[in-house]
Write a structure and sequence with these properties.
4-stranded parallel sheet; alpha/beta
């Protein structure tokens, strides 16, 4: 019996290791949970040091090996059994296939009612031009104009019922669903039933998206109780969404993180550069305390310390790309969206696999007034203090480096020096 157990263990271990090296040789990010705080091609340690990178810069290759092999983490990350147990209702009610009649992911339920999910998710990040991008994207005749942010995956599904935006629409869908809360999948499907499905019945080429920015950085439910003993979230919201809707397309627009923080500060009631300087110092002190006790991935998903965590892009993007792969995640820099919008719009249409428009038509769309701009607030508040910028650049620099390597694009360094 002991020999059989030993043989089984060696065989199982060999299969796992071979699978890992085959994955690595394909140039894909490792899928295992690495000691420290990382998922993906980068290794973060708990003292908030630089990621361990290849010395030759930004190449995706089999050189991305791991320092230690955490088998428990590997199994948690790659086995959906526990996800299916925790989110049984979702897995039981989500379709396993969609009707080929529609470009958008739609199906007929048992009562022959057409139900549809988003074709794409524009997930963030906040204060990075998401509203402007969304409003110009839905000008495409093939993309339906649905209310941008239902916030279902990240918030309503977990019991959040507030209505900071879309209040009339939320109340309308609650009435359709017949419940006071918004947590059910029925509520989410009714959201699109109310604003999109009728048109899809008439035109099968139409698609729609979900533009909720909280989807990008929110942890998956109650991970600390669902996975006791885990140092940081062993599974993520991208893992859950991919398990349910693996063919979805993910769009992200990112802004230089220091400027993003300042914009968010003013948007949320901050007055000027002096109030921002206080917020920066308080946030850095808060984050230092967290990092002294936890991994940076834990701190990024803890969502404390004011707005600073939302600029730790590499941690969130690693999870999204790990779940969906590079080919299903389209990342835009706000800089390019501002300076070369026609080219960026064309790239988006190609990524979404929808009809290409003429240059003149695209030009007429992207040259429309920028939505949700804070130019007046920024002018009144003045430039941030150089000392504030220096503190934040020092904090974000390692995460920018990690992001640049993950995306194989040095533009995401944002020239911090």
């Amino acid at each position: 019996m002991m020999q059989k157990n030993l043989l089984f263990g060696l065989t199982f271990g060999s299969v796992i290791i071979l699978a890992f090296f085959f994955h690595a040789l394909q140039g894909k990010p490792p899928l295992i949970h690495i000691k420290g705080a990382a998922i993906g091609p980068l290794v973060y340690n708990e003292s908030h040091q630089l990621p361990v990178n290849d010395s030759d810069g930004f190449k995706n290759s089999s050189a991305h090996m791991v320092e230690s092999f955490n088998m428990l983490g590997y199994l948690l990350m790659n086995d959906t059994t526990k996800l299916k147990k925790i989110y049984a209702e979702l897995f039981e009610t989500f379709p396993t296939s969609f009707s080929p009649r529609f470009k958008n992911p739609c199906w007929f339920n048992k009562r022959s009612k057409l139900r549809c999910l988003p074709y794409f998710y524009q997930i963030g990040m906040p204060k990075c031009g998401t509203t402007d991008l969304w409003n110009k994207l839905i000008k495409h005749p093939q993309i339906q104009n649905v209310p941008k942010e239902p916030h279902w995956w990240a918030k309503r599904r977990n019991g959040w019922t507030q209505t900071p935006i879309h209040a009339p629409q939320v109340l309308r869908v609650r009435h359709m669903t017949g419940k006071e809360d918004d947590a059910s999948l029925e509520w989410y499907l009714n959201w699109f039933e109310a604003f999109a499905v009728q048109d899809i019945k008439k035109n099968h080429k139409l698609v729609f998206g979900d533009g909720s920015v909280t989807t990008s950085f929110t942890p998956l439910g109650h991970w600390r109780t669902d996975f006791p003993g885990a140092k940081d979230p062993p599974v993520s919201l991208p893992d859950l969404m991919h398990s349910l809707q693996p063919e979805a397309k993910i769009i992200v627009i990112l802004r230089e993180p220091v400027s993003r923080f300042y914009s968010a500060h003013l948007y949320n009631g901050g007055r000027n550069s002096r109030s921002f300087d206080r917020a920066v110092k308080d946030s850095l002190e808060c984050m230092a305390t967290c990092l002294s006790r936890h991994t940076d991935r834990f701190c990024a998903y803890q969502q404390t310390c004011d707005q600073i965590f939302r600029g730790m892009y590499s941690i969130y993007m690693t999870d999204w790309i790990k779940a969906y792969g590079h080919d299903k995640v389209h990342v835009i820099r706000l800089d390019e969206w501002v300076t070369t919008p026609i080219e960026e719009y064309k790239k988006l249409l190609k990524f979404l696999e929808i009809d290409m428009l003429s240059n003149n038509t695209i030009k007429s769309i992207v040259e429309q007034k920028v939505q949700n701009s804070q130019k007046k607030k920024m002018k009144k508040a003045g430039e941030m203090l150089p000392s504030s910028r220096k503190l934040l650049e020092d904090f974000y620099r390692p995460y920018n480096r990690a992001l640049a390597e993950l995306l194989n694009d040095t533009n995401f360094l944002w020239d911090y020096g």
